[in-house]
Amino acid sequence: MSALLEIEGLHSGYGRTEVLRGVDMRVDDGEIVVLLGSNGVGKTTLNNTICGINRAWQGSVRFDGQVLTGRHYRDVVSAGLIQVPEGRRIFPNLSVRENLELGAFRRGKRNRATNLARVLDMFPRLHERSGQAAGTMSGGEQQMLAIGRGLMAEPRLLILDEPSLGLSPLMVEEMFALIQRLRSEGLAILLVEQNVRQSLETGQRGYVLENGAIRHSGTCAELMASDALRRAYLGM
């Protein structure tokens, strides 16, 4: 596989506080890469720096061979690198359909109707509630909406930040089945999760972020078999 996203020596933070300390990682075309780490180690900061929301202090971000370091987040979206943020960040007072259509504001306008039909077919519950205010839906339905909105932008790589957070066990199963389906359709995914076991069973490769740096990496099978990781993250 060819590298779609390449991150080298990435440093970033807030004010004078450094959060990322030389992160190196890659996501290949068409694969699921899992990013693991406890709360507060820099996962969301990494996502936001990749996407141009936070400024990179040092290092580089390349996407499909194009340098994105220092580019505006609108340029990142235009390139096809789309983040579904933690906490969903939907527009609660807008309808489901309006939220989805906003996903194509920067990228995917030409195929908006086709993509909307595809997303509503993929998420029947969103189809049933297309005219409903998004804020009145359940947490699981709102997560579907957030992912559907991301898909409206025709992503080449989708960053999913804690997509299973706060969901019921049944909805978690549905979420991971959806992630597998998207990958089978050729979409590359960076999956940022605290559901360690299910994430490693879903992805191909993984990284473990600790104190702003990558401490472990390998195939998901290798990480699952690591005694240190099993003790730290799986309680085994």
TrEMBL record:
It comes from the Bacteria. Keywords: Amino-acid transport, ATP-binding, Cell inner membrane, Cell membrane, Membrane, Nucleotide-binding, Transport. One of its GO terms (biological process) is L-amino acid transport. The keyword Nucleotide-binding applies. GO terms for molecular function: ATP binding; ATP hydrolysis activity; branched-chain amino acid transmembrane transporter activity. Gene3D superfamilies: P-loop containing nucleotide triphosphate hydrolases. Pfam families: ABC_tran. The keyword Repressor does not apply. InterPro entries: AAA+_ATPase, ABC_transporter-like_ATP-bd, ABC_transporter-like_CS, BCAA_Transport_ATP-bd_LivF, P-loop_NTPase. SMART domains: AAA. Residues 5-236 form the ABC transporter domain. Signal peptide: none annotated. Belongs to the ABC transporter superfamily. This is Amino acid/amide ABC transporter ATP-binding protein 2, HAAT family. It comes from Paraburkholderia caballeronis.
